[in-house]
From TrEMBL:
Pathway(s) per entry: Cofactor biosynthesis; 7,8-dihydroneopterin triphosphate biosynthesis; 7,8-dihydroneopterin triphosphate from GTP: step 1/1
Reaction catalyzed: GTP + H2O = 7,8-dihydroneopterin 3'-triphosphate + formate + H(+)
NCBIfam families (UniProt xref): folE, PRK09347.1-2, PRK09347.1-3
Classification via SUPFAM superfamilies: Tetrahydrobiopterin biosynthesis enzymes-like (SSF55620)
GO MF terms held by the record: GTP binding; GTP cyclohydrolase I activity; zinc ion binding
Keywords of this entry: GTP-binding, Hydrolase, Metal-binding, Nucleotide-binding, One-carbon metabolism, Zinc
EC number(s) given by UniProt: 3.5.4.16
GO BP annotation list: one-carbon metabolic process; tetrahydrobiopterin biosynthetic process; tetrahydrofolate biosynthetic process
UniProt-annotated binding residues for Zn(2+): 78, 81, 150
InterPro entries on file: GTP-CH-I_C/QueF, GTP-CH-I_N, GTP_CycHdrlase_I, GTP_CycHdrlase_I_CS, GTP_CycHdrlase_I_dom
GO cellular component labels: cytoplasm
The protein's name in its UniProt record: GTP cyclohydrolase 1
Domain GTP cyclohydrolase I: 9-186
């Protein structure tokens, strides 16, 4: 993981507070720069990590049918506005040659990918590509549903609007019927 410069973040937060007309030395704000710096270190802990490294548990199990982990909660930060977006990821794959991974590892991939300045479209594609590269399944399908605070609290101001992105690889890219079936299972 890349080293986070907490002191530099603290100074930047003090500058932002002063720039918006606040007094960074006011009692309620004295520790805010330190808290924000710790928060950014946590929120961006995926920087410098390779999500493929999360797929360490690989097992030989002669199962070549769909495996789905649904409703994996995540949060990320919009790289355009540095405000949060959050939602759920649904990940499906069809093992090839009996090569399966631990179910929790799929959630760890989602977490690692989401914990950096991101775009939802990139999160979705990166999760799919990570599975293809590491476990070489017959097919991968990923659906990500999220609410973006950049649309909720600023700009268009539409709370509750959700964005859905998908990524399909292998069999799910080639076979529309298989894609429809797995999407139905993932969303059902």
């Amino acid at each position: 993981m890349k080293e986070v410069n907490l002191g530099q973040i603290e100074e930047a937060v003090r500058m932002i507070l002063a720039a918006v007309g606040e007094d960074p030395n006011r009692e309620g704000l004295l520790d805010t720069p330190k808290r924000v710096a710790k928060m950014y270190a946590e929120v961006f802990e995926g920087l410098g990590k390779n999500p493929e490294d999360e797929l360490t548990a690989l097992f030989n199990e002669m199962h070549e049918e769909v495996v789905i982990v649904k409703d994996i909660p995540f949060f990320s930060m919009c790289e355009h506005h540095l405000v949060p977006f959050y939602g759920k990821a649904h990940v499906a794959y069809i093992p090839r040659g009996g090569r399966v991974t631990g179910l929790s590892k799929l959630a760890r991939v989602v977490e690692t990918v989401a914990r950096q300045p991101q775009l939802q479209e990139r999160i979705t594609a990166t999760i799919a590509d990570t599975l293809v590269n590491k476990i070489q399944p017959h097919g991968v399908a990923v659906i990500v549903e999220a609410e973006h605070m950049c649309m909720t609290m600023r700009g268009v101001k539409k709370p509750g609007a959700s964005t859905i992105t998908t990524a399909v690889r292998g069999l799910y890219h080639e076979d529309p019927q298989a894609r429809a079936e797995v999407f139905s299972l993932m969303r059902g």
